[in-house]
Design brief:
Blueprint: H1 24-36, H2 40-43, H3 64-105, H4 110-139, H5 161-170, H6 172-207, H7 216-248, H8 257-306, H9 323-347
């Protein structure tokens, strides 16, 4: 490979290293999602404050049987939710192991290592601040919040619905469990996603260094690595959507029957909104690096053609077998977060007795 040990001998952001700014694209999608689930969301009309979500009254004599049924349904939903969070953590561990291993092996020079590890550390600080900033400020006494307010994302799914249904009817332990699941899941995904984002950005950096006839194997290796990065990132985000689908359904058994369908439709919309943002993350991770790799392959083909004698014109490059299927797999991977929501809904469908 032409870039070998000579790569990275110039200034810090020479030789394509400035392309690490590509990490800002998925960070922008993350910021978009966090903004749409902030207090601005109500002002913009994305979420409407649901003040009158009617729950089954536990003290009503006529509701005793309905309450018993709701408690069993809530217990089942809680098991689904714990299982989906466990799946999310396991997937995050696998994705993170692959991603951080790729980040560790990618740099080819001292300057490359500075950029990659500095970038990873900066992203980690930014994401952890976004996840834990308010909590840290509260602990330091720099942020005061009324005791009846929460920064949990489920506050947009009804005025204290989760507190009333999960915290009071089921018990405080169930609500504490949910908060713990959200914290563990968010941090696991953050650590894994940062590694994937940095790894993909550095594929783009290294793609700009390809261009000689001898760089063909390196281009093929980067392409395979990028495809694998896309697949595991899709797995991570699909697990995240399934987890969201499960925990948002926790209070549904306690919603009054006349508005249960409408409430379920609202949480489906919440999951759809998250899914679209996740698709944006996947596209921003994959597409820029894929385009730069394609340009590099074009330079390699041109270099090979220029090195062949005029009396022996180069044979046209054979089209890889199964190209259409590979492209289809990439499209499915990109759309996987959107597809995960309906699949999770289908899994929860109960057949009539």
């Amino acid at each position: 490979m032409a870039t070998g040990t000579a790569a990275g001998t110039g200034k810090l952001f020479d030789e394509g290293r400035w392309l690490v700014v590509l990490v800002l694209l998925p960070v922008f999608c993350f910021k978009l999602w966090s903004t749409m689930t902030s207090d601005c969301a109500i002002a913009w009309g994305i979420f409407a404050p649901l003040l009158n979500v009617t729950l089954i009254e536990p003290g009503a004599a006529t509701a005793t049987k309905s309450m018993e049924t709701a408690l069993v349904g809530a217990a089942a939903n809680r098991l689904y939710s714990v299982a989906s969070t466990t799946l999310l953590v396991f997937v995050s561990i696998g994705v993170g192991a692959y991603g951080w291993r790729s980040v560790w092996r990618s740099p080819k020079s001292r300057l490359d290592r500075r950029v990659v590890w500095g970038l990873g550390a900066a992203l980690l600080v930014i994401v952890l601040h976004a996840l834990d900033g308010n909590w840290v400020l509260e602990e330091l006494g720099l942020l005061a919040r009324p005791p009846d307010q929460s920064d949990q994302v489920y506050r947009f799914l009804g005025n204290h619905v989760f507190d009333r249904a999960i915290g009071k009817i089921v018990g405080g332990g169930a609500l504490t469990l949910l908060k713990g699941q959200l914290v563990i899941g968010n941090h696991a995904v953050a650590l894994a996603a940062i590694s994937v984002v940095v790894s993909s950005a550095f594929i783009a950096v290294r793609a700009t260094r390809l261009g000689t006839a001898a760089d063909g194997p390196a281009a093929a290796e980067f392409k395979n690595q990028l495809d694998l990065t896309l697949m595991i990132a899709a797995m991570l985000l699909v697990a995240g959507v399934i987890d969201t689908k499960q925990w948002t359904a926790l209070p549904v058994p306690f919603i009054a029957e006349e508005m249960r369908t409408a409430y379920a439709a609202m949480i489906n919309g919440f999951v759809a909104l998250e899914s679209v943002c996740f698709v944006g993350v996947l596209v921003s991770i994959f597409l820029p690096s894929a385009l730069l790799l394609e340009r590099a392959r074009g330079r390699i083909r041109q270099a090979r053609s220029g090195g062949v004698e005029a009396v022996s014109p180069p044979a046209p490059e054979a089209k890889p077998e199964g190209l259409a299927f590979a492209d289809l797999i990439r499209v499915v991977a990109l759309l996987a977060p959107v597809l995960a929501g309906p699949i999770a809904t289908f899994v929860n469908i109960k057949l009539p007795a």
